[in-house]
């Protein structure tokens, strides 16, 4: 009789242990591994939100992202330049030629004067941008305001690629970069009519970037045209979809200042698509393939 009681107790305990193991296994399989990473960062006056659907170490990924953004939080180019700052300066110089001068990182003094509502006759100093022995040869007033966010975010995305992080969506003050679709869904992003809650289109985005500029935003340096030394606004809004966030950012900042025909040519050069919002909506031929039909 005693042996039977002991056997029953052991059987019951084994059953409880088995149930605990099953519950633990289910938790690891469906909750721990599938827990979505979501974090918001504030740098360069921008709000940047990451949502990652792959399994990641949350603490480590947050530290890595912060470390990347902090490198460019205070850009002091007065002394010896490290490799990160040298690469940033060179990238800024390249942008000038890619955009025919619509993005000019030597326009710091122009931006400063326009923010103070002062006139300033700007002349590009891009040809004076030269680095020797890890130092700038000439003293230049740089303006990285309209490129620094996308530049640092691109570095984070490169870190993702190196670490096989594929399922994510990033929002950088409304500019969106999407990776692979997550397990049970796709990324749908709305394009709204500027200064309105009216949704014009829903966009499906996968392994692409979408950048938007409009008149609703507070003052931004993308509104300053270095070719005319004036703050300009040709359109109510411009949207660009490109293969990566650097290209999308470069194109949308340029298109906002360009005549539409000139903008269409530039977009075509980079195999991207664009949409212009005024009283009427104009889009490049391939833009509609991203529009969600239902």
Characterize the structure shown:
The structure is a single chain. The chain is globular. Among the domains are: 2-33; 183-290, T-fold, CATH 3.10.520.10. It is an alpha+beta fold and 294 residues long. The strands form four sheets. An eight-stranded antiparallel beta sheet has the order 1-2-5-6-9-12-13-14, with helices on one face. A two-stranded antiparallel ribbon has the order 3-4. A two-stranded antiparallel sheet has the order 7-8. It has seven helices and 14 strands. Helix 2 (58-70) runs antiparallel to helix 5. A hairpin with a 2-residue loop joins strand 1 (37-43) and strand 2 (46-52).
Short description:
This protein has 294 residues and is of the alpha+beta class.
Q: Keyphrases for this structure?
A:
294 residues, alpha+beta, T-fold, eight-stranded antiparallel beta sheet, two-stranded antiparallel ribbon, 14 strands, 35% helix, globular
Point out poorly predicted stretches: 24-33
**Largest sheet entry:** 8 strands, antiparallel
Mean pLDDT: 89
- Element pattern in H and E: HEEHHHEEHEEEEEEEEHHEE
Roughly what fraction of the amino acids lie in strands? Answer: 15-25%
Topology, pairings included?
Layout: H1 2-32, E1 37-43, E2 46-52, H2 58-70, H3 83-98, H4 108-115, E3 131-132, E4 135-136, H5 148-162, E5 168-172, E6 175-178, E7 188-192, E8 199-204, E9 208-214, E10 224-225, E11 230-231, E12 237-242, H6 245-255, H7 260-269, E13 273-277, E14 281-283
Antiparallel strand pairs: 1-2, 2-5, 3-4, 5-6, 6-9, 7-8, 9-12, 10-11, 12-13, 13-14
Helix pairs in contact: 2-5
């Amino acid at each position: 009789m005693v042996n039977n009681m002991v056997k029953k107790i052991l059987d019951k305990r084994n059953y409880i242990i088995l149930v605990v193991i099953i519950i633990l296994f289910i938790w690891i399989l469906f909750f721990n591994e599938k827990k979505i990473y979501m974090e918001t960062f504030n740098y360069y006056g921008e709000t940047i939100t990451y949502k990652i659907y792959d399994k990641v170490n949350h603490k480590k990924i947050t530290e890595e992202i912060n470390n990347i953004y902090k490198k460019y939080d205070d850009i002091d180019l007065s002394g010896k330049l490290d490799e990160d700052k040298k690469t940033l300066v060179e990238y800024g110089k390249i942008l000038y030629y890619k955009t025919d001068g619509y993005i000019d990182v030597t326009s710091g003094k122009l931006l400063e004067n326009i923010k103070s509502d002062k006139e300033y006759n700007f002349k590009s100093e891009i040809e004076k941008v030269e680095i020797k022995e890890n130092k700038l040869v000439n003293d230049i007033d740089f303006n990285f305001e309209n490129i620094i966010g996308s530049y640092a975010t691109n570095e984070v995305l490169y870190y993702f690629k190196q670490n096989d992080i594929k399922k994510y969506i990033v929002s950088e003050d409304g500019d969106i970069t999407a990776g692979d679709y997550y397990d049970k869904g796709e990324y749908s992003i709305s394009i709204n009519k500027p200064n309105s809650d009216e949704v014009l289109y829903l966009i499906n985005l996968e392994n692409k970037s979408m950048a938007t500029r409009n008149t609703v935003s507070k003052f931004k340096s993308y509104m300053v045209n270095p070719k005319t030394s004036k703050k300009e606004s040709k359109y109510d809004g411009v949207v660009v979809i490109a293969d990566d966030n650097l290209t999308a950012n470069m194109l949308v900042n340029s298109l906002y200042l360009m005549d539409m025909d000139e903008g269409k040519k530039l977009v075509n050069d980079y195999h991207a698509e664009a949409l212009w919002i005024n009283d009427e909506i104009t889009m490049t031929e391939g833009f509609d393939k991203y529009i969600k039909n239902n």
